[in-house]
From TrEMBL:
Source organism (scientific name): Drosophila hydei
Designated gene of the protein: LOC111601532
Signal peptide coordinates: none
Catalytic activity: L-seryl-[protein] + ATP = O-phospho-L-seryl-[protein] + ADP + H(+); L-threonyl-[protein] + ATP = O-phospho-L-threonyl-[protein] + ADP + H(+)
Name the UniProt record assigns to this protein: Aurora kinase
Domain Protein kinase, first and last residues per copy: 53-303
Length: 328
């Protein structure tokens, strides 16, 4: 890739790079790779600027940023370009949060974590060149799903992918701390990308005490203002898995005081449509202490079986899609 600064593929590696690429896409991808390899940035330090990119359609808008589809001029490599105005960041007093997000996200390289490919700034703006997740926020898909919830196989697959991403974060001494469907993006291949590391933190051994994250997802130790460690992310994964399956988080209530009180009492109910496997997994995560590990989640039998069913569902959908295309 034009953006990587170490371990570069050369022309000799092209046959290897194209191994899993369908026949009909081989030539355009080969041409793009060749263009990337001939870019001044390839393998060398390079000062990117907005002049290197053609900006296209808007993909979305956040509190401080607007995100556009953008194309790198030389290689035609597509990215999602997040543009933030320095003045707005200053007014919102979030400069440090943004710098932390950049610093942490540029170090993390995992298939289920949104890649920050490069970043640069000019007098008034900061630009983040991000990997594209073309299906956008997972939250939108949850809201559009029947009864605002995913079926068990789909929930199991997504739970696995988030557990995998969080496990990688923890191995790299990073706690995400703000897991929720709004902070997860979906790709065209039905894969999740964890985004928004604005609240994440390095975890140098000692426990932390900052209250952050979203109320519905806060673990009891954070609600009570106690010290906490990276197992807060396991709690959030339990809430997320519940929300996938039920359509709303388990401690949701009309006021934030009630939500906090319910979290402290672990006052929640499992709807009758949940399978015993799903309940067992969630109850292993939504504990005050002794939460199951992320590796336990990834090897859990409900998760494994659900993933296999989801893979078969997608294969079936793809087959139908191809048949419909052929018939039209
Ligand atoms: N990499 C991406 N690929 C595709 N769409 C994206 C990508 N990043 C962001 N978007 C879209 O742009 C929207 C805004 O993203 P952004 O990261 O600025 O905001 P946010 O995280 O939702 O909000 P905030 O951090 O301000 O609370 C997202 O909701 C999503 O729809």
């Amino acid at each position: 890739m034009a953006f990587t600064r170490t371990k570069h593929a050369t022309r000799d590696h092209l046959p290897h790079l194209l191994i899993n690429v369908p026949e009909e896409h081989q030539e355009p991808i080969k041409q793009m790779c060749l263009k990337m390899m001939s870019h001044d940035a390839y393998g060398k330090p390079y000062q990117w600027t907005s002049r290197d990119f053609d900006m296209g359609a808007p993909l979305g808008r956040g509190k401080f940023g607007r995100v556009y589809l953008a194309r790198e001029r030389h290689s035609h490599f597509m990215v999602a370009m997040k543009v933030m105005f320095k003045e707005e960041l200053r007014k919102g007093n979030v400069q440090r949060q943004v710098l932390r997000e950049i610093e942490i996200q540029s170090r993390l390289k995992h298939p289920n974590i949104l890649r920050l490919l490069t970043w640069f700034h000019d007098e008034s703006r900061i630009y983040l060149a991000l990997e594209i997740a073309s299906e956008g926020e997972l939250f939108k898909h949850l809201r559009n799903a029947p009864n605002h919830r995913f079926d068990e196989p789909r929930s199991a697959k997504y739970t696995y992918q988030v557990a995998n991403a969080l496990n990688y974060c923890h191995l790299n001494n990073v706690i995400h701390r703000d897991l929720k469907p709004e902070n997860i993006l979906l790709t065209s291949t039905d894969d999740l990308k964890l985004a928004d590391f604005g609240w994440s933190a390095h975890t140098p051994n000692n426990k932390r005490k900052t209250m952050c994250g979203t109320l519905d997802y806060l673990p009891p130790e954070m609600v009570s203002g106690h010290f906490y460690d990276d197992s807060v992310d396991q709690w959030c994964l339990g809430i997320l898995c519940f929300e996938f399956l039920v359509g709303s988080p388990p401690f949701e209530s009309s006021t934030s005081e009630n939500t906090q009180a319910k979290i402290k009492r672990l006052d929640m109910h499992y709807p009758s449509h949940l399978s015993p496997g799903a309940k067992e997994l969630i109850s292993g995560l939504l504990r005050r202490e002794g939460r199951i590990s992320l590796v336990d989640v990834m090897t859990n039998s409900w998760v494994k079986e659900g993933m296999a069913i989801r893979a078969a569902q997608l294969q079936q959908q793809n087959k139908k899609g191809k048949e419909n295309l052929a018939n039209n």
